[in-house]
TrEMBL record:
Homodimer. ATP binds at Q9, P10, T11, G17, N18, G145, E146, D147, V204, K213, M214, S215, K216, S217. This is Tryptophan--tRNA ligase. Its main location: cytoplasm. A motif ('HIGH' region) lies at residues 10-18. The gene is trpS. Catalyzes the attachment of tryptophan to tRNA(Trp). Its EC number is 6.1.1.2.
Amino acid sequence: KKLVFSGVQPTGNLHLGNYLGAIRRFVALQEGNDCIYCVVDMHALTAQLVHEDMPSQTRSIAAAFIAAGIDPEKHIVFNQSAVPQHAELAWIFNCVARIGWMNRMTQFKDKAGKDREQASLGLYAYPSLMAADILVYRATHVPVGEDQKQHLELARDIAMKFNLDYAEHISRTGYGVDITVGNEPVHAYFPMVEPLIGGPAPRVMSLRDGTKKMSKSDPSDLSRINLMDDEDAISKKIRKAKTDPDGLPSEIDGLQGRPEADNLVAIYAALADKSKADVLAEFGGQQFSVFKPALVDLAINVLAPITGEMRRLMDDTSHIDAILRKGGERARARAEVTMRQVRDVIGFLY
Ligand code: TYM
């Protein structure tokens, strides 16, 4: 049984990239594992300090989790700020992480833009809070889209440095776990985080430009399919999606140098739970005039029930609020077990 953790920010609308790269995979991981899924509202402050609609954005991510098929009774669904232990561990990690490590984060460079002096300290420290989210449960498996890979490598570096710096204290308190790093057995406190980046669509690209990631911040709404889009919008966006003039190849190799074709095939494969090779075996040699309508039907078949259920859940917020409240209580109890030990390892009197 693996301990799985992942988070999604309550900023803007969820799009197909969030669904295929993350949420759909959260659902699949429930079987046989212990999963904790979090709406990371504290991270959302790094994008925008004042949110008029923080409560409804938070609820809508939780509603998407439930509508997609996450079971909040068997697993844990909660919002980050309800568990202050995340922030407490993040502070300790701020002292473990080195500024040089943070300076290499490409997401920080992108988001901070040209005037880096004006970026918030929170945006800079974002990956340290993310490491705390995972490690406050000592989770080992983290399903994310490819854009989060560098952050998870940093989480490993933080865990490793904590384990080394506090090695003696960890042995003295007896809280360590035996793990192997490379081939070396190590008596460590925090486990090594393993990113789960995979499936046919770890990086869903913009429908307008196959070299850019599908993202909430793209000014063109035609570039992405939002989880809340209705059938007409989905159909229009796929019909208008950029393609090249050729038909679909029969082999994967034929997608090289054709980012838009590759993206649409990857989206089809992920929605159908197939591999890209399977999709090409079916559609190889066909024109986009045949493939796109099939993709529209598939996308609507998969997304419409989720959208409908999200709307229903958002109509009466008491159900979602109860799920978040209970999830928060369970998460707090588990996070506190770790924090008591961490305080002890460090030597904080408590
Ligand atoms: P966020 O909220 O930006 O995105 C949520 C998830 O969606 C994935 N994703 C994509 N996957 C494929 N193609 C795309 N175009 C695409 N766009 C987004 C993201 O990789 C992510 O898995 N830092 C995280 C949230 C976070 C977190 C954590 C994740 C905070 N703490 C701890 C894992 C563990 C983020 O901003 O995701």
